[in-house]
Write a structure and sequence with these properties.
This protein is α+β, with helices and mostly antiparallel strands and 129 residues long. The protein has 2 domains: 2-41; 46-116, no CATH class. Helices cover 28% and strands 24% of the residues. It is built from 3 helices and 6 strands, in the order E-E-E-E-H-H-E-E-H. The strands form 2 sheets. It has a 4-stranded antiparallel sheet, with no helix packed on it. It starts with a strand and ends in a 13-residue tail after the last helix. The protein binds iron/sulfur cluster. Iron/sulfur cluster (SF4) is lined by residues 86-87, 90, 92-93, 98, 113, 124-126, 128.
């Protein structure tokens, strides 16, 4: 991971780099005008979901949210509080989602944590609760 800037043959510069989730390259001409750019989001192959898996998770999420709204399968308050306190300190908690919503990876569910902890039949994918 990192970034580098190199001169181009025509006096411009090429800025390229990568992060854990993307690769990028920008090319500027000698006047500083952006002449081309490339941006590629990347996810490790073994972390990618198939369309089937993504669809199943989406359906499961909609059903789960419906149950939460209707108060079905709600566990006791102490269970909710315990689960929330565990999720609050978990590294997989990304802005309130377990893993990333659109790229949760195979070992994270991508669920909205506030909803997930309120369903009695839910489990932490990493078996923390
Ligand atoms: S459900 Fe489990 S893995 Fe997901 S944020 Fe909570 S403790 Fe972490």
């Amino acid at each position: 991971m990192g970034m580098s800037t190199q001169p181009t043959d025509d006096g411009g510069r090429r800025v390229s780099g990568n992060t854990s989730w993307c690769e990028y390259e920008y090319i500027h001409d000698a006047s500083g005008k952006l002449v081309s750019w490339r941006f590629t989001a990347r996810t490790p192959k073994d972390e990618q979901l198939t369309w089937d898996e993504a669809a199943q998770r989406l359906i499961r999420g909609v059903l789960g949210l419906t149950q939460v709204v209707l108060g079905i399968h709600r566990p006791p308050e102490y269970v909710i509080a315990t689960r929330e306190s565990i999720c609050d300190t978990c590294d997989e908690n990304v802005h309130g989602f377990c893993g990333q919503l659109l790229k949760p990876g195979k070992d994270k569910c991508g669920c909205l944590i506030k909803a997930k902890v309120r369903l009695a039949n839910e489990q932490c994918p990493l078996e923390k609760w």
